[in-house]
Amino acid sequence: MDRVNRHPERARHERQDLYAVLDAEHNIGTLSTVVDGRPWVVPMLYGRVGDRIFMHGSTGAGALRHVAAGAPAALCVAHIDGWVYAHTLFDSSANYRSAVVHGELQLLQGEEAAEALTQLSECMMPGRSAEVPTHTRKQLAATQCLALDITDGRWTVKVRNQPPGEPPAADNADPRLWTGVLPIVSRYRQPEPSPYLAEDIPVSPSVTSYIDESGHGPAL
Amino acid sequence: MDRVNRHPERARHERQDLYAVLDAEHNIGTLSTVVDGRPWVVPMLYGRVGDRIFMHGSTGAGALRHVAAGAPAALCVAHIDGWVYAHTLFDSSANYRSAVVHGELQLLQGEEAAEALTQLSECMMPGRSAEVPTHTRKQLAATQCLALDITDGRWTVKVRNQPPGEPPAADNADPRLWTGVLPIVSRYRQPEPSPYLAEDIPVSPSVTSYIDESGHGPAL
């Protein structure tokens, strides 16, 4: 991992910690690179499989081709888990989990690309790939599939998961002021059928089992 | 705004659309810049006030000083609103709202910085600034307060908010397969008091009214 200079107590150092952040929520991150000396950024869906991160895009996406050609890149993922109300604004904070992975993207080809696209889909919609037809050659030809390898020394994880600290002795803190955490969670709503769907078609097993097993069960 | 090349039908062109995405969820984005020709990225809390975006960090954060010194920067914000289950993996997608704002950060000073820090706090914890003491000089001295101006031609917004499309005529699509959207929402849980708090102290009005008015009312 890279070195964390600010709040080193929030750094996490094990690969499992990185995997936990990457796999935790909804598989969206920000992919950054440099184009003409300026930052180029785009939100990207991703999926981690072992020590690789897969992403994809259209073959028509020019800047993505630049990244795919080996430009230095970084993927940043961040989840807010709560607002931390302290006795002062200065001590107030957020609980969060974040990860940054640096590396060079590789453009996958042929069977490796097809398999990676299936695995990427499984990260976001587990079980779905078995319910739909396999990729066609035309679909594969229209898709860039990218891999970012997770490499020692090139990632950081930071986690804050704490109540506010003790009231400061100075700073005019009011000891009778409520302090604590307002937790934020992500939930699913009930699946919404496509308007093109016949009425008697049940929700796919992949969707119902995902809701049940995700820990993000439906908001009532 | 910048030009959106891929899926131009998803682009939004009015400032109100940008503001809606920036203000929508939990005020976390990815700040990117270029250091030594490589991408430098960090998750950042932010708050939009008018056509400015405020961020902050410790004065000890060296890379942030680099950004604050006028380096080209970009803030990327993205929310996932649902998984879109189509008849093929290729046509499957996510509903999302995303924004990228390019510009140069400015380091604010003195009274302007103090006011911006209060406004930034109000974006994340509305009402709280009136419940706590005002910033001390020591706190202000320890904080970098940054502003990113929203400038015409230097931002993009993309939104997908649709069910899956009609089943494709080809691609071996199964017309009896369930298709639709699994919506994802963000919710609060009940506030968790600090362990340092006396038991009889009620939750602050800023917290209770935030929950009630946010549209992210508590998950039961």
Name a few traits of the molecule.
220 residues, Split_barrel_FMN-bd (chains A, B), homodimer, Pnp Oxidase, Chain A, seven-stranded antiparallel beta sheet, Pyridoxamine 5'-phosphate oxidase (chains A, B), alpha+beta, Pyridox_Oxase-rel (chains A, B), globular, 5 helices
What is the strand and helix layout of this fold?
Two copies of one chain form a homodimer.
Chain A: E1 11-12, H1 15-24, E2 28-35, E3 38-45, E4 47-49, E5 52-58, H2 62-68, E6 72-85, E7 93-104, E8 106-108, H3 110-124, H4 137-141, E9 143-149, E10 155-160, E11 180-188, E12 192-193, H5 205-213
Antiparallel strand pairs in A: 1-10, 2-3, 2-6, 4-5, 5-9, 6-7, 6-11, 7-10, 8-9
Protein name (chains A, B): Pyridoxamine 5'-phosphate oxidase
InterPro entries (chains A, B): Pyridox_Oxase-rel, Split_barrel_FMN-bd
Organism (chains A, B): Enemella dayhoffiae
Summarize the main sheet of chain A. 7 strands, antiparallel
- What best-fitting shape of chain A do the alpha-carbon axes yield? globular
State the assembly state of the protein chains: homodimer
CATH architecture of the largest domain in chain A: Roll
Brief synopsis:
With 220 residues, chain A is of the alpha+beta class.
Question: What can you tell me about this protein's structure?
Answer:
2 copies of one chain form a homodimer. Chain A has helices spanning 15-24, 62-68, 110-124, 137-141, 205-213, and strands spanning 11-12, 28-35, 38-45, 47-49, 52-58, 72-85, 93-104, 106-108, 143-149, 155-160, 180-188, 192-193. Chain A is α+β, with helices and mostly antiparallel strands. Chain A folds into 2 domains: 8-165 and 178-184, Roll (Pnp Oxidase, Chain A); 187-219, no CATH class. In chain A, strands 1, 2, 3, 6, 7, 10 and 11 form a 7-stranded antiparallel β-sheet that branches. The first copy, chain A, has a 4-stranded antiparallel β-sheet with strand order 4-5-9-8, sandwiched between helices. The two termini of chain A are 40 Å apart. The model of chain A has no long low-confidence stretch (mean pLDDT 91). The interface between A and B is large, with 102 and 102 residues. Strand 12 (192-193) of chain A pairs antiparallel with strand 11 of chain B, so a sheet runs across the interface.
